[in-house]
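Following up on my earlier thread - several people asked me to post the actual chain instead of describing it. Fair enough. Here it is, all 79 residues.
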Amino acid sequence: MEQKIRIDRKMGDNLKKLRKQHNLSQERLCAKLQLEGCDIQRSTYAKYEHGELNIRASVLIKLTKIYNCSFDAFFEGLE
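Reply from S.P.:
Thanks for posting it. Predicted structure:
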């Protein structure tokens, strides 16, 4: 039986906080991600922020470049 990673709501909150700190809409952020070679639709990104879907490591890598931050920013408050 396949075991799935538990989705953590706090990470979604961190993603949303970072996006808002950079004054980006989900659509604008997804456009920036697409320019970085990461084909993410706004509906998919919304699921990341709502904790409904696990975010891929490749997306996190691109977000560190867009936000000019470390990976720690995504995991703040997680245990």
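Residues 19 and 29 are 8 Å apart (CA to CA). That should answer part of your original question.
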